Every structure is written in C-alpha cells, then in structure tokens.
Amino acid sequence: MLPKILEDNLSIPVVGAPLFIISRPDLVIAQCKAGVVGSFPALNARPQELLSDWIKQIKDELGQFKEDNPDKKVAPFAVNQICHLSNDRLFKDVETCVKHEAPIIITSLRPPEDLVKAIHSYGGLVFHDVISTRHAQKAVEQEVDGLILVCAGAGGHAGNLSPFALLRETREWYDGTILLSGSISDGFSISSALAMGADLAYVGTRFIATKESEADDDYKKMLIESAAKDIVYTNYFSGVKGNYLGPSISRAGMDPESLPEADKTKMNFNSGGNATAKVWKDIYGAGQGISSIKNSPTVDELVTQMRQEFDSANKELVEKVSKY
To answer: Which terms in the Gene Ontology molecular function aspect does this entry carry (predicted)?
Structure first.
C-alpha cells in the first residue's frame, strides 16, 4: 500500500535512495520535480547548521514549482538519518527535521523509538532500511511506516539476501509499505519489483550518473564503463558489508579480490572507516545494476526513460501471463 502523501504525487513508483556526499538540494529537487521521491543524508549538510537551509530551500523551490505547474506530479522529499553511535549529530539533525517538518525520514541501522515518535508528532513518515526479517520485525515493533528491503546487489551498504527471498518472506507477515532495493536501475526492474509484491522501487546508483548529481565526472565515467562483474562486496571500508566499484579500489592501491575483514571496532559512517582511502570519495559505491547505465542524462530525461521502460515492461508482462 502507498501512504497518502505519495498517492497521486509520483510519475513512477520510485524513491531515490540517499547518496552520501552526492545527494544535495539540486539532485533532490530535480527528482521531486520529475515525480520521484528525492532524498539526501542529513550528514551531507556540513556544517550541521546547513541542514536547516537545505530543507528550507527544497521546500521553497518545490512549493513554487507546484504553484507554477499545478498539473504536474511533484513528489515529497526525504532526509536520511544514520542511527549509530558514531553519528554524533543525530539528535540535532532530527531536531532540525522536526522543526521544518520534513515529510519523510529514512532511518538506517537502528530505528530509535523516540525518533519515530518525534516524526509522527507532525504527521511525518519513517521508512527504515533492513537486510533481514529480524531487523524488519524490530523496526515494525517501533511503528515505522514502511520497510526498505536492501537486498543483494544494492549499491553501498547492502544485504546478501535475494530480493525474491526477503520480499516474499516479509510479505508473509507484513502488509504495510515495502520499498525494494537491489540492482534496480531501469523501468524493467521497477516493474519487476512491483510484480514481486513491493510498493515502491528504491533506486540509488542510477541517479549518480545524472547531470544534477554531485558525483565527479570520473565517478560517472567509471559507472558507464563498468558492469556487474566489477562490483565488490566487502565490509572493509566501513565495517558494514557493502558494494563498491572494483576499479576504484584498484586505483587506491588495493586488491579487490583480497580485501581483509574489517575491524568492526572502527566502524564509522562519517569517514573512511578502516581504509586510508576515503570510502564514497575515493572508493566508489555502486550496485550490480550498473550495466544499464550508458550515459549521464538529466534527472527528468532519466525518469522519462524509466517511465517508457516501465510501461513497456508492464505491457509485455500482461501479454506473457495472459497465455497461462
């Protein structure tokens, strides 16, 4: 099911995943104007006081765009909060989001109950990302509004369960909003996510290679030139398992095939964790769906393309299943 805030406000069933360093107001605003939920990590706004300015800028620009384009679908935005002891900004960042009534909060790692209550106090939504049924059940116990299933193949921090397994297992006991993540980078995979039982597709890597993205040209070029075989799954860089571009690891002087296990006592989501090279800045995160990345369009062009692929996939699926 879709929350009311998303009904009639999406051009395609997509939430843009928050991208550390990369997601900033220009990308978020472009995503929302194109009819997909745009999001950014609160930690991207540095210093902390900048977070208030960003939220105000996004709300003001989207409000004006809605007024000027009353017939267009304009999606709400989301702010990502990293709920971990290493994030010493969490309290202030949540306080800022409550003050400005950010419509959606995406929580990662631990969903603290008091955060959920604070966001619900003004009618906001909380979506929590999980990699297992156990994590999902804990999040639902704390009354989050939706689950983001981060499955095998997702860019950045990711689980190792097949989306078929985790999604169907979750649907056995949960009938709320589910966002599916893992190698979703075009309209065909978006259609597949819905066919499997998800309500929304959670897309990150594909938006890195867009004009509005803050990623440098080298990052975008590497995405375009790489394929699924180049993705490396490791916990070495932050202490949490994630997917990264092998060529960026090699360039940093490390062997992608023989990375050691992380020292979990140094888990840190603000920097490079266990490596000298900085994760996200020098070591590029990416999901396994990168083979569909052939260019670096504007967000609007990309969403239009995704819509066309989505419609084509849906039509083809109907034709196929009608034979049985």
So the answer is: nitronate monooxygenase activity
